[in-house]
């Protein structure tokens, strides 16, 4: 009697499974003893039939196997974006706030840091949900690309505000970001309701941020004067060896 090699064929596409089965049926030395459509089914069939070889052509279970990977990608993306944002902002953030007139009800610097942490928490959650809970599609990848682009683009805003001291340009960028926020919410709402609801508090904050950026630009109409005053602060710091002692001016 001719020896037959018993096989388990697993793939998440019907056409691929059928093609593999027909291929092995043409060769008498092979015998397909079990067929599975996903990873869980493959494990069950393997336990039941105990074939010596399991041919796992393409059996990843998207919602299950990518959960831990999605978490790592989310954390890594947020960490890298935070580094880029910090590099774009530079070391003069505190001195900048001390050299401009801030709008009324402007948060203190320590609260801005907490807001930044919550921002990355929300966007990290969005990336995680899109990677781990939503079936892959062009809409999913579009929402992911927009999310990541907005995270790294946030560094551009910091570059304009804290390094170039161009408050009018930063206001324009902030208004454009508001449109991207609405687009992101629209895309995500079509993919995952939980993620969409998580974005709602962020959009409320963004509405405040747009008002804050507009008020900041109106209170400091001359970006050149802001740059000059900031430069004078640093010159004074270099001359006297201590930090400038300007107090934040509130409206």
Task: Explain this structure.
- The chain is mainly alpha-helical.
- The protein folds into 2 domains: 5-60, Rossmann fold (3-Layer(aba) Sandwich), CATH 3.40.50.2300; 64-240, Ferritin, CATH 1.20.1260.
- It has 10 helices and 5 strands; from the N terminus they run βαβαβαααβαααααβ.
- The protein has helices spanning 14-25, 39-49, 62-65, 67-89, 93-98, 109-132, 138-163, 167-189, 193-219, 223-240; strands at residues 5-11, 30-36, 53-58, 101-102, 249-250.
- Helix 1 (14-25) links the parallel strand 1 and strand 2 (30-36).
- The longest helix has 27 residues, at 193-219.
Q: In terms of topology, how is this protein built?
A:
Layout: E1 5-11, H1 14-25, E2 30-36, H2 39-49, E3 53-58, H3 62-65, H4 67-89, H5 93-98, E4 101-102, H6 109-132, H7 138-163, H8 167-189, H9 193-219, H10 223-240, E5 249-250
Parallel strand pairs: 1-2, 1-3, 4-5
Helix pairs in contact: 4-6, 4-7, 6-7, 6-9, 7-8, 8-9
